[in-house]
Amino acid sequence: xxxxxxxxxxxxxxxxxxxxxxxxxxxxxxxxxxxxxxxxxxxxxxxxxxxxxxxxxxxxxxxxxxxxxxxxxxxxxxxxxxxxxxxxxxxxxxxxxxxxxxxxxxxxxxxxxxxxxxxxxxxxxxxxxxxxxxxxxxxxxxxxxxxxxxxxxxxxxxxxxxxxxxxxxxxxxxxxxxxxxxxxxxxxxxxxxxxxxxxxxxxxxxxxxxxxxxxxxxxxxxxxxxxxxxxxxxxxxxxxxxxxxxxxxxxxxxxxxxxxxxxxxxxxxxxxxxxxxxxxxxxxxxxxxxxxxxxxxxxxxxxxxxxxxxxxxxxxxxxxxxxxxxxxxxxxxxxxxxxxxxxxxxxxxxxxxxxxxxxxxxxxxxxxxxxxxxxxxxxxxxxxxxxxxxxxxxxxxxxxxxxxxxxxxxxxxxxxxxxxxxxxxxxxxxxxxxxxxxxxxxxxxxxxxxxxxxxxxxxxxxxxxxxxxxxxxxxxxxxxxxxxxxxxxxxxxxxxxxxxxxxxxxxxxxxxxxxxxxxxxxxxxxxxxxxxxxxxxxxx
Length: 540
Prior knowledge:
Blueprint: E1 5-8, E2 11-12, E3 25-29, E4 32-37, H1 39-45, E5 51-54, E6 59-62, E7 64-69, H2 71-77, E8 81-82, H3 89-101, E9 109-114, E10 138-142, E11 147-150, H4 152-158, E12 171-174, E13 180-185, H5 187-194, H6 202-218, E14 221-226, H7 233-242, E15 249-252, H8 262-271, E16 279-281, E17 284-287, H9 316-328, E18 333-337, H10 340-354, E19 364-367, H11 373-381, E20 385-388, H12 390-396, H13 404-409, H14 411-414, H15 420-425, E21 430-432, H16 443-452, H17 472-478, H18 481-486, E22 504-507, E23 524-529, E24 532-536
Parallel strand pairs: 1-5, 2-6, 7-14, 8-9, 9-10, 14-15, 15-16, 17-18, 18-19, 19-20, 20-21
Antiparallel strand pairs: 1-3, 3-4, 6-22, 10-11, 11-13, 12-13, 22-23, 23-24
Helix pairs in contact: 2-6, 9-10
C-alpha cells in the first residue's frame, strides 16, 4: 500500500465531542485516512516517496466545507470594483470616480458589493451617483447579488428604455413616467444589461476561477456546496479537475427556474451524479423568493413599503409540483427561501412530497433570514437542512435595527433575524456557509460571525441578536459533520477516522478555545484535499 502523506505531532480534533483523539499522527493512502497512531508508528509506514510533515502540535480538524457558495460567478463578479467597504454615498462616489479615471474610453465599469444602506432614505437609483457615471456604461451589483444598478449609458447600450415582463418575479424599476431608474431586480432583469457588456474569454474565466479556488484552499476550505451551474461552470470545473488544479471538492446544484418544462426537468434528473474526481452534480437549486433588502422576498405580511408580497414562482403550486417530481426521482433540492412565507411554502412542499414516499432524500432551505416560532420544529421533523449564512446578519444589518433590512421588516420580524440558535435547539441540522461573493469565504470568519454576530469591519459594535449565537463546537460541526450529513456523506466525510476522506484543515491553535473575535486571524498552516496538500504555510 502506497503512503503518499504522513502527518506527525498533531492534535487531532474530534468535531463530535470537541476533544482531541488519543492518536498524534495519521497516514494517508488513496485519498483516505488509512491509519492513526503515534509518531513512531506512522513514520514507520513512510518510505522515500512519502511526504512527511511535522505539524509541531498544530490542530487538525476535518476539512472545512462552505455550505453555500458561487465559485464561478463569484470569480467574475469580484474581478470588478469592490464597493463593499463604502459606508456612505460619498465613499461610493469617490471610489467610482477613481475607477472612471482609469477606464479606457467606452469601457464598462463593473462594481460589486454595493450596500443599499449607503442610500439612507433616498431611493436606490443611479441618479444618486450622478454626475460620476455620466456617459459611462456601469453595472454595479448590490451586495445581495439579486439586484443591480445600471447607469443610463449601460441601459442605452442594452436597449432597456422601459418596463419589461418576465416569467419570474423580476423587474426593471421605472419612475412614474415609465423611465428606468437604473435599479434592476432579480436575475432575469440584470441579464438584460449584462448580455450587452463585453464578456471575458474562456481562458480568463478559467484563470480567475483557479485563483479564487486557490485562495479558498489557503483559507482552510476543502469543499463547498456550489449553488449554481450557470454558463460554462461545469466545463471549467472539469477542466481544472482533469489538470489536477481543482483544490476544493465541489457539489454542484444546477438551477431550476419558473417555466421549466418536463423535458428540462428530465434533463436535470439525468444530470445528477455526473462529474469528475473532485466535483459532482448533486441536487437542484430553486428559488422561492428574492431578498428583503430589494423588496422581492415573500413575506406573510408586506414590508414597510408594501413590498415582498409575492413568490419568485408566479405559480407557487408549480414549484410544489417540481419538488415532488424531484423527490420521487431521489434528487435533493436546495431552495432559496428568505422570507417567512417562502420558508413555510418550501416546508409544505417537502412535506407533501414525502407523504407516503420515503426516498431518504435530504432537502435543504437556504438563507432562512426570518421565520416564526411555529416553523422551527418542522426542519427536524422533515429532516430538512437549515443552510445559514450568519455573516450576512453581521455585516448587512445593525443591532439597533436602523438598517434597510430591519426597517423594511419592522421590529417584530427583525427580532427573528437568522435564528441559528433556535433552529439548532429545535434539533435542525444547521449548515454554515458564506454565500460568497455575498460575504467573504474564509471559513474561520464564517464561524466567528456565527459566534459573535458583530460587524466584521467594527467588532466594537454591539451584536445583532446575541441570543441566536452558536457555540464554538457547534460552528465547527456545522462546517464538518453537518455539511457531510447534508450531502449524504456522513459515512465517509466530516470526521478524522480510518476509512474517511483525507480532507483536512490544519490550524495553528484550537478553534474551540480561540476567542470568536480573534478566530478569523488564526493561521491556517495546511490544507489537505484527497490526501494532497493544496496549501502549506512556510512554517511547516
